[in-house]
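Risk register update: the risk of archive-format incompatibility is retired. Evidence:
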Amino acid sequence: MLIILDASSAWSRGILRGFAGVAHERGWTLLHYHPTADLDWLAREWKPDIAILPPGYHQQITPVIRREQLICVNCDRTTEGIASVCVDEQKIAGIALAHLVNKGIRRVTSFRFSESQFAVEREKYFYEAAAENSVHIEPGWWVDNAEPSRHLEDAGELVRWLKGLPKPCGVFAACDAWARVVARYCRVSEIRIPDEIALIGVDNDTIECELTAPPLSSIAIPWRTLGQEAADLTHRALAGMPIEGKRVVVAPLDAIARRSTDVLAVADSLVVKTVGWICDNADRRLTVPAVCRAVGTSRQRLERRFRAVLGRTVMQEIRRAHVETAKRLLSNTSLGLPRVAELSGFTNPVLLSVAFRREVGVPPGVYRRRLQSVQPGDD
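Archived output:
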């Protein structure tokens, strides 16, 4: 097997680990090279059974290796007859939009550094989701073929764009590394995150997210699963089954909330106060009457304000806060489900599982296992 992936990025390391885990079990021989290597020479020299290729690989390899021997990861090239394992860009965009809307954000925009397929698709689907939810779309910012690690010659233009956005505004960056650039120039522009700009990226690259100030909220993608799916296609091809043009789509996991979106952008001070109190007390069992007493208002008044401002009931907000607390515990601890239930306001694990499945779509145990597959495993 010839694998052409740059191991310097979190997503590619995750794919490599997922693929390598299966390969070692099956006794496959792996040849790993950087995309800058001479692919044509590698193919002629090693004559691999299967070649695993990244987005934008050079076309000269295809005359050497037949299309039925090619598998592309992290992009869709099925229209060219090449088997592809890719992420669901529409779901990524939908999760990002929903995360911002749940924070009360009603104006959004996007940021990207290239015309790459993934970036263009994420932006397109993000704007479509915004339009479907009657969220106002502000003009986005992008520069084709720019590298975020290099000096931005048009930094002044980027600063003017950020300053010109109506506040508060949600910014969806196509990947975490690009989101960090937004955060950097928000500081230059003296724009407060998350109060004025709520910022979310994609990849949940722990290093990028923690280096960003404030820490970056991000969409988690199970990169190891992509590697495992590519290994499954490899196994099929080696077994003589056709894979040419086959498309495998892997769904993102969830929005992993951090400080960059820790805001409730609504004008109603009672709703803001109530949501804050619920979040602060989400580690214990809450009832709507108890919440009303805590904030000093009637249930009828509070329910009316919640529906008008957030489009959900107080009980739905309580359940959401409990589940968010459980998600953090599942993500950051190895506690068993009974203890997670106790610390997130549920009386028992069964109630936690029911609420978690309703809010997230999967049971808490499945969520934890999927989250473990997200990071490349730099431990």
